[in-house]
Structures are given as C-alpha cells and as structure tokens.
Design goal:
Layout (H helix, E strand, L loop, with lengths): L3 E7 L3 H9 L9 E5 L4 E11 L6 E9 L3 E10 L4 E6 L4 E3 L1
C-alpha cells in the first residue's frame, strides 16, 4: 500500500480538539470523530498537536486512527475553522482489519 490521503469533511472545533488531547490519561483518553469525504466516521485518538501556520485554526496532528477497517498511527492536517482537512495513511504504521 502506497502513502494515501483521505479527506476530512467534518470534525470537532478547537475546544473538541483540546478535550481530545488533554482529557483522561493514556488508558481513558477519549477518541474524537472525523467524518471522512466518503461519509464514513473514523475515531481518532490524539497524541500530538502542532501549529501548521500560527493562525490558531490550522493544525498538524498525530495519533491513532480506528474504525474504518484500517488501524494505526496517522498524520492529520486539520483546520478547526472550516472543520476540514486530510489524513495521511503511511504503510508500515497501519493494520488492515
């Protein structure tokens, strides 16, 4: 499987991202939900967040994706203003179920 990008058409706002990162601990941290361009909802557990451009709305995320038949660590670009972005799937970090 080559590197693949999947679009995000809906997801949490800024507060939802913050709760997804800071609530709970390694065992109880909540998943946040992204709606993909295909209409499928995917759960994502945040591991890190960094500013993409310093605007306060554009983010680079890393974390664990589950619920779309592919499970593993992914990179995400996400814009909280438009609630859209993309998930980059990288072979070697994923398990197909």
């Amino acid at each position: 499987m080559a590197t693949e990008t999947i679009g995000i058409k809906n997801g949490p706002g800024l507060l939802g991202l913050a709760f997804g990162l800071f609530e709970g601990n390694a065992n109880t941290q909540p998943y946040i939900t992204f709606t993909l361009d295909t209409g499928v909802e995917a759960d994502f557990r945040l591991r890190s967040v960094s500013w993409e451009d310093g605007s306060g709305q554009s983010w680079n995320l890393t974390g664990y994706l589950r619920g779309v038949g592919i499970h593993g660590t992914v990179d995400v670009y996400y814009h909280t203003g438009s609630r859209s972005g993309c998930i980059t799937l990288r072979p070697g970090n994923l398990r197909i179920s």
